């Protein structure tokens, strides 16, 4: 129950095994394809060079720029390196690719699936790596939380066992007392 043998992206249903990543997403363990991992973690990577940020290692404020419409964060230097049409504006008016390009999808292969004939460009490879890193970060985080919970549960289990033993001891004591009283009353006859 619960575990489906069938592997597919939980968001878009893609079945391409090469681009699927195991991760915790919205409190559930499952698979997301590369495009959906990137699309749903806009604050975790630069959408231009596909460097992944650790939670604690966002670029410093003077070297980063946030998308005006979503939580996407890009390197300021990457934004400046874009072709001139959009970079003439100041750093305050950045729109990430998802928010500025109609019908944009990350990891955009023809047909959406890696096949023998497809060439994985350097850009696509970077996106695949970025998604894999984001997925692994989510698993590490979940593992840390699970460890904490496991310790808590272990302590609770010890306490519960102790309480159970105390209850058993009490019952045993009462039974013994009862038996003593029985034998006393019968010997008095
Ligand atoms: Zn997907
Ligand atoms: Zn960048
Ligand atoms: Zn955006």
From TrEMBL:
Protein's UniProt keywords contain Zinc-finger: yes
PANTHER family linked to this entry: PHD FINGER FAMILY PROTEIN
Superkingdom of origin organism: Eukaryota
Domain RING-type: from-to ranges: 46-100
GO molecular function per UniProt: zinc ion binding
Keywords: Metal-binding, Zinc, Zinc-finger
Name listed for the protein in its UniProt record: PHD finger family protein
């Amino acid at each position: 129950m619960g575990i489906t043998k069938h592997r597919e992206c939980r968001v878009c249903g893609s079945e391409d095994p090469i681009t699927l990543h195991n991760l915790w997403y919205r409190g559930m363990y499952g698979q997301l394809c590369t495009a959906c991992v990137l699309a749903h973690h806009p604050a975790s990577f630069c959408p231009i060079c596909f460097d992944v940020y650790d939670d604690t290692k966002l670029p410093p404020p003077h070297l980063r720029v946030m998308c005006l419409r979503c939580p996407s964060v890009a390197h300021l230097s990457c934004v400046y390196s874009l072709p001139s049409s959009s970079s003439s504006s100041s750093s305050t008016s950045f729109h990430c690719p998802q928010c500025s390009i109609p019908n944009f999808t990350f990891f955009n292969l023809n047909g959406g699936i890696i096949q023998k004939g497809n060439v994985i460009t350097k850009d696509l490879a970077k996106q695949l790596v970025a998604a894999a890193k984001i997925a692994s970060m989510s698993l590490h985080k979940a593992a840390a939380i699970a460890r904490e919970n496991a310790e808590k549960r272990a302590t609770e289990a010890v306490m519960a066992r102790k309480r159970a033993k105390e209850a058993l001891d009490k019952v045993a004591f009462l039974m013994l007392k009862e038996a003593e009283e029985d034998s006393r009353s019968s010997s008095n006859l």
